[in-house]
Amino acid sequence: MLEYGGDMTDADDLAFDVFARACPSRGTLEHVTGRWGSLTLGALYDGTFRFNELRRRVDGVSEKMLSQTLHALERDGLVHREAQLTNPPRVDYRLTPLGREVAGRLIGLIELVEGRMPEVLEARDAYDTRRAETDAQA
């Protein structure tokens, strides 16, 4: 039994609504769509990675932030962490089936954004020009 919105209910009976303040799906959505979460999931879509391999793949992420991101994604059931008792120790990260489904949708969004960047850059230039003209008139 879980408590949601003040009522005790089975998890299967919950009607999740990301727009509701108390909905637990908000946290997962934040983990998935945050800068490091989405890039980490996207990188793991390509396969299994060790921590440092993943850190190199997600250019710019700090060790601390990647660690926090992986913990959150593992807790949400999107990433599987496998520690092997070797010398030196080896830890591999890969997507779970749920993580693979979520990452697949993110990859579609990433490809859409990358493919439309000329339009985005054009829109940015037009916006910046309008802002500069408005600021000059003020």
Automatic annotation (TrEMBL):
The keyword Transmembrane does not apply. Coiled coil: none annotated. It comes from the Bacteria. This is HTH hxlR-type domain-containing protein. PROSITE patterns: HTH_HXLR. InterPro entries: HTH_HxlR, WH-like_DNA-bd_sf, WH_DNA-bd_sf. Transmembrane segments: none annotated. Pfam families: HxlR (PF01638). PANTHER family: HTH-TYPE TRANSCRIPTIONAL REGULATOR YODB (PTHR33204:SF37), TRANSCRIPTIONAL REGULATOR, MARR FAMILY (PTHR33204). Keywords: DNA-binding, Transcription, Transcription regulation. Residues 23-121 form the HTH hxlR-type domain. One of its GO terms (molecular function) is DNA binding. It comes from Streptomyces laurentii. Gene3D superfamilies: Winged helix-like DNA-binding domain superfamily/Winged helix DNA-binding domain.
